[in-house]
Design brief:
164 residues; seven-stranded antiparallel sheet; 3 helices; 7 strands; 26% helix
Length: 164
Amino acid sequence: MGSKLSQTVDLTATPDEVFDHLDDQTRLAAHMTKSSMMMAGGRMSYDFDEGRGQVVGSHIRMDGSALGLRLFVDEVVTARDRPHSKQWETAGASQLVILSGYRMGFDITPTALGSRLTVWIDYDLPTGPRRWLGLLLGRFYGRWCLGGTTADAVKYFKGKRGGK
């Protein structure tokens, strides 16, 4: 993969609690299911196999639109070590605008007050005519995805225990 970004936050929750929350892909990427400026007014919906994205080899399919273009991505879970880490990557041909293939995941380490969560993405830019969009917006979009995931986790655990 070509470019890697990450974002880290501290949470007042145990590694088990953080992992269980993020292991549900609908929570992990909730920001993708809402219409937003970064999705150009579009949004994504999920389709899961019987593993629901919670076992190695399980597929997570997302379908939606942005900028009037149909988007589709099939992700496969490649590693899952509860409560420490999980990763997944694109499988097969994706229909994306700003990124092409990617590997994404999260790592959780215990801290004195709870857990440190690092969410990361390692991605390639599209080829052909859409490459300029990737060059222009790839890092910005990647940071938005990571920021959405970490902000959602902070909000969730703050509401549960008055955390950070």
